[in-house]
Amino acid sequence: MEIVIVESSTDIGPLVATMVVGLLERRPGAVLGLAGGDSPVPVYESLIAAHRRGEVSFADASAVTLDEYVGLPPGHPRSYRQVIIDDFVSHVDLPVASLHTPDVHAADLDAACAEFEAHIVRLGGVDLQLLGIGANGHIGFNEPGSSLASRTRIATLHPRTRADNARFFASADEVPYHVVTQGVGTVLDARHAVLIASGGHKREAVAAMVEGPVTAFVPASALQLHPHATVVIDAASAADLRLSEYYRFAHEHRPHRRQY
Ligand code: F6R
Q1: How close is the Cα of 91 to the center of ligand 1, in Å?
Q2: Inside any domain, residue 72
Q3: Domain range spanning residue 203?
Q4: Number of structural domains found in the chain
Q5: 256 CA distance to ligand 1 centroid (A)?
Q6: Atom 3 of ligand 1, nearest CA residue
Q7: DSSP string, 179-192
Q8: Rounded Cα distance, 244 and 101, in Å
């Protein structure tokens, strides 16, 4: 796990965007794992800006989403598929047909989840998965107690997550109770996992993920087992880390020219 502490949250988007741009330079047909929520938005903005400057093309890339609400009508403006199209895909040259999402409208959701997993395998696996972290330590919508070996499945949101996500809806009652989420095991299969957090409200979850035990109680702690996980956080999110000075030192002295 590489911990990168940036001084300002405004540094996160450009830094993570360089990881994506570098990947696409090496592998134009890469598979990106895209997340919803606020955390990846600065990354999407930086990537859109890089695309407009002609520095990156997504034409040969594909993308899969991390999770999706169950129960919203197709095309609902707050469905993660739609948000990711509106915030990112529609502004770059990634064909919408290359954005793959689980079919949360299928009559047989278990089969749809299995098909999504199979589709990721057919794509060759995810090269870079963007992640946020919930204040309770979730990744994707793997809430506390999720098996660290879990695969894509239907899950029930924690009441705190529903409350946290109420800001995206007209009223708290509109937040769905259920989601389809990549499992923790699915996330761990990505070749590079990049988790972003900013703001003091994430500090406890970040400390538990990085310095606590690996436990289903904090699903994000499973990233400690990932061979290539990068955690990019601002100073406020890093405030509870005991080894923050070392992480800063290690980043300052990271091996020359090493790719993220
Ligand atoms: C969203 C997702 C969630 C969020 C997390 C943080 O697709 O999988 O795990 O990343 O709830 O949300 P934000 O980024 O809005 O603070």
Answers
A1: 21
A2: yes
A3: 2-252
A4: 1
A5: 32
A6: 140
A7: EEE--HHHHHHSSE
A8: 36
Element (H, E) at 196: strand 192-197
What is the reported pTM? Answer: 0.97
119 neighbors 82 (Cβ within 8 angstroms): no
Cα–Cα distance list, 198 to 132, 171, 220, 240, 258 (Å): 9, 25, 15, 13, 25
Residue 159 included in any domain: yes
What atom of ligand 1 comes closest to residue 138's alpha carbon? 9
In order along its 260 residues, the chain shows pLDDT tens digits of 999 999 999 999 999 999 999 999 999 999 999 999 999 999 999 999 999 999 999 999 999 999 999 999 999 999 999 999 999 999 999 999 999 999 999 999 999 999 999 999 999 999 999 999 999 999 999 999 999 999 999 999 999 999 999 999 999 999 999 999 999 999 999 999 999 999 999 999 999 999 999 999 999 999 999 999 999 999 999 999 999 999 999 999 998 777 88
List, chain by chain if needed, residues with CB within 6 Å of any ligand 1 atom: 35-39, 66-67, 80, 132-134, 138-141
In a domain, 258, yes or no: no
Among 41, 70, 79, 138, name the best residue to mutate to test ligand 1's pocket (greatest count of ligand atoms within 8 A of Cβ): 138
Question: What's the CATH number where 147 sits?
Answer: 3.40.50.1360
Is 155 a domain residue? yes
